[in-house]
UniProtKB/TrEMBL annotation:
Gene Ontology cellular component list: cytoplasmic side of plasma membrane; cytosol
Region Disordered: start-end pairs: 394-421
GO BP annotations, alphabetical order: negative regulation of cell division
GO MF entry, a single one: ATP hydrolysis activity
Protein origin, superkingdom: Bacteria
UniProtKB keywords: ATP-binding, Nucleotide-binding
The protein, known as: MinD/ParA family protein
Organism: Nocardioides glacieisoli
Amino acid sequence: MTAVLEPDAAQRGILQAMLHGSTAFGDLEGLDEHIRSTPNEFAVVIGPSVPSEAAAELAQWARVHRPDLGVILLRHDVDSAALSLALRSGMREVVAARDLASITTAVQRARSVANAIGQTIMDEAQAAAEFARAQAAAEIAQAAAVAQAEAEAPRGKVLTVFSTKGGVGKSLVATNLGVSLATSGHTVCLVDLDVNSGDVAIMLQLSPQRTINDLVGFNGVIDAEGISSILTRHSDNLSVVAAPVRIDSPDQASQDDVARLIDALRRMVDFVVVDTSGMFDDLALCALDRSDCIVLVGTLDIPSLKALKLATSTLEVLNFPKSTWRFVLNRADGKVGLTVDEYEKTLGLKADSSLVSSREVLAAVNRGEALVTAYPNHPNSKALVSFAKSVAGSIGGPANSTESTPSSRKSSGSRLRLRRA
């Protein structure tokens, strides 16, 4: 379509009659409304009666906002002033008002240019859309590749040794479980989360230079390289993240630090064995949330039975499935008026392993050596080694799956309910 702007009615009639299908206007207001509402308009013929300033203003607007719109200026005399005006304002052509054939030709050229510009705009839009689609596809593919890499990355298993009563042999079980797994060829990291009185390093005769509280200095960036710097090596297959050697340490590892530590260790070793404090504190809950196996430890006495019963009730409230629980009964041979059957019936759990009272246990602890290596033929050593093999077999050893275990899906809401209880 073509629009004509010409205040003089006679001249406007001539132009409209010559340019079939054109729309003629006698003022800028009508033309302006027409152009803004007609996106397919390709040419505006400005008649000779339109002042130069108004013609230039219209052309400058079209150059910026409608580059496909060709502005053709008609003048009675096509002199240097008219040409200069057209050049400055971006008009497409200047034609003599009496040259009707040239006017028609100029309009046809404006149509061709508008079509070319329109095609270019469409091509650019299509290219931009294709680029956006390709970029989105690349981002999706990259995300899928990362997810697949994480899914295929070996993931170690987390074993958390837990009890809500001290003195029941929790650290004994944790250290010997870790040593047994390491001796059988697995890579193992023992993590001591009893930050106030952890004994794992002492029980293995280790002198740690760095402890779990050094995680604070990592500022949340906890990776394999950083973790390696705080490990204390026990053997080729066994390392330890030790508890603080001072209870007045100014820096305390946070729950988030411990969560990142355990998550990273799962990608570094076959088994992460966690020793906990005797309470449901934030660090213990953090480990329990990530556990493939929860090893409960108790002794054959009423206080221990009461504490362990409360612990199992709490685990049930927090929806930790019983299928992940294992129970070790320590000092199961005690003649204290309470039988193993009575203990198990009251607790609602069968012992997966039973240990007897023995002076060799304390002797090994005092020597800073695991019982399973100090006295490999001792009944407790054999029981612990067998228990370690059973646990490793039941949870499948190192896995190539990122699917969360039931216990790893606990929410912070569960922890909050626990604190309020």
